[in-house]
Amino acid sequence: MTERTTFFDTPLLYLKGLGPQRTELLNKELNLFTYGDLIQYYPFRYDDRSRYYTISELMDSMPSAQIKGRLRDWYTEGEGPKKRLVGTFTDGTGSMSLVWFQGITYIEKTLRRDGEYIAYGKPQSFNGQFSIVHPELENTNTASEQELGFFPVYNLTEKLRKRHLDSKVIGKVMRMLLEQAWPHIRETLPDALIQQYRLVGKRDAMWNIHLPQNQGWLKQAQRRLKFEELFYNQLRLIKNKLIQKEEFPGQIFRDTSLMKHFYNELLPFELTGAQQRVIKEIYGDFLTGKQMNRLLQGDVGSGKTIVAFIACLLAIGNGAQACLMAPTEILADQHYNGLKPFADAMGLNLGILTGSTNKKRRVVLHEELQTGKMHILVGTHALLEDAVQYKNLGLCIIDEQHRFGVAQRAKLWRKNETVPPHILVMTATPIPRTLAMTLYGNLDVSVIDELPKGRKPIKTVHKFDKHRSEVFGFMRQQIELGRQVYVVYPLIEESEKLDYKDLMDGFESMQRAFPRPKYEVGMLHGKMLPYEKDDEMQRFIKHETQILVATTVIEVGVNVPNASVMVIESAERFGLSQLHQLRGRVGRGADQSYCIMMTGYKLSSDTRTRLETMIRTNNGFEIADVDLQLRGPGDLTGTQQSGVMDLMIADLAKDGAILTAARESAQAILTEDPELVLPQHAPIRNHVDGLKQTENNWGRIS
Fold it and tell me: Are strands 129-133 and 123-126 parallel, antiparallel or unpaired?
C-alpha cells in the first residue's frame, strides 16, 4: 500500500472534532467511513458571504444576501399554522421584514430590541417591500471574524441537523482534515494536461472546493476536479473498449457483391448522405477482424432499418446469418413486414420468431437456422431461448436496445461458439452527445442525422382545453382528406389526486364527437391482452378505424404512414423525450403531418420550456439536450449505472465541453501509450494502480 492510500483509508473516528457518535452518524446517514470518503464529499452550493449588502441594493434575482442592521421591533400575526413572527430590520438605507413560521417561541426569546445583527437569506419583494423568510440571524457581538467569504453548504439529512452536525460543523472538520491531508495529496494528472488546459494543482483544487478563497478560486477548483473525474471515467471506458477489441475477434465480411446488387438494382429510393456514411462505418468494422460494437442513433423515421438490412446483406454475402431483436411483437412484426419484400426480391429466407409463433412453425425455424437455410431471423425475447441455435450467426441487431438488459444481450452474443457475432444496437431515442459518451463510451457511435428526401417536418402547436372544438374541427378536415388520427392520454384510469383527462373518459367523448357510422374510434392501452392490442392495431393499419385513442403503448416503433395527426392530451404530464417519441408516430408518409399538444392553463416554467422546444424544433438531438438540462442524466437513462452515472462533481447536463476535452485527452494518451508506461504518464499509472484495490469511481482521490 502507498503512503497516500494508507492516509486516506484512515477511519473517520481518528479525526479530531468528530468522536464516536458523530462518526457513526456520518457512516449511517452519508455512507462516509474514511478520510478519503469525507474529503471527496463536495459541497453542493456555497453561501456567498464575501460582502455585506445594504437594503437599498437588494434585488429579487439574488440567490442570497448578507445585511448588517438593527432589529427595531417584532410582532406575531395570524393563527394556527399561519401564525408567523415578523421583525422590522433597518440599516440606514431602508427597512425590510424578517419572517419566521417555525420555532417562533424559541426565536422570540433570543431577540434583542434595537440589537445589531447580521441577517442572511434569500431576499424576496412584495409590493416594493423586501423580506427574508427564516433568515440566519447572528448577533454582531458574537459573529466570528471570518464571516466574510464563501461558505460550503453540504447535502445533509434531518438526523444530522438534529444532532447539530450542520454545514458549519462539517466545514470546520473539513478544514482540520485538509490541513492534515495536505502533504498526502498527490498530483493525479500529467504536467502536459495541466499546462494544456491551465488547470490548478490537485492540492489547491481540494482546498478551494471546500474552503474557497474567492469566486475565482472556486471556479478553478470545480473545473479542475470535474476534468479529472471525467478524464478517469473516459479513460476506463476507452481502455475497456480497447481490451474488448483486442480480446474478441470478429468475422471478416469483405465480399460486397450481394449488398451492391441490392443497392444498385433493387433499392427503391436514394439513401441519404448520413445513411451512406453509417454503412461505410459498419463496413469498416467488418474488415478489421475484431468484433463490432456499434450504437446506431437515428431519429424517428430517419431510416435505420434499411441500414440494418444492408448490414445483414454484408453478413449474408460472406456466408453468415443475421438476427434482429425488437422489444415488442408489434415492432418485430413491423420490421418483418417492412423487410419481407426486400428479402423476397433478393431470394433470401427471412423468418420471424415471437411468443405467438406456434410449435409447428418453431420446429421448421429451428431446423432452417441450424442448417443455414434461414438467412435473417427477426424476433422478440424469443430469440434468446436456448433452442434457438444458428449455423453461423455473424451479426446481431438489437432495436431500442435500452429495453434489453445486459444479461439478455450477452445471451445473444453467445449464440456463436467460435467467433462472437458483430453487434449493432439501434435506438430512436436521441441521446445527448455527453450522455452517449459516458453511457456508451465503450461503443462506437454512428448517427443518422438526416431525414429521407420528401419527408416534411411535422407542424407542432400547443392548444389549451378551451380550443377543443377547434381541434375537433381540424381532425374532421383531416379525416375527410382520408387521413387518420392518434389521440394519446397519460392515464388509463381516473386518479383522484390528478385532475387529468383519463383514457376511458376520452374514448367516450371521442365517440360522442365522432359518432358512427361516419367515424370509427378504436382504443389501445397496456392492460389489454396481446391479441386484443394486435387486433386493434391491425384495424387502424387497415384504415378500419379513423381515430385511435391510446396510451403511450404506441410510443415506440409503430408505423402507419396514413396517420398524419397526433393529439397529445394533458401534454404537461409527459417528458420532453416522450413527447418527441409520440410525435414521431406521425410524419411517416409524404403528407403534411401535425402534432397538437393539449394542456390546461396551469403550467410550470419547465413545462413551458418543453412545449416551446417541441414547437421550435423537430431535431431529436436538440430536444435531447434540452431534456438533459431539465431532467438530469439519471432520469433520462432510468438507471444509475455504477461507475458511469455516479459522478461526484461533474454534471453531464452542464459540463459537455469539459467532457469532450477529457475524452479527447484520454483517447490521445491511450493511443500513444496504451499500457501507461511512459514516465510522463506516471501520475495516471499510480492513480489507476491505487484504484485497482477498490471499486471506487475512477475520478476519486485515492
Answer: antiparallel
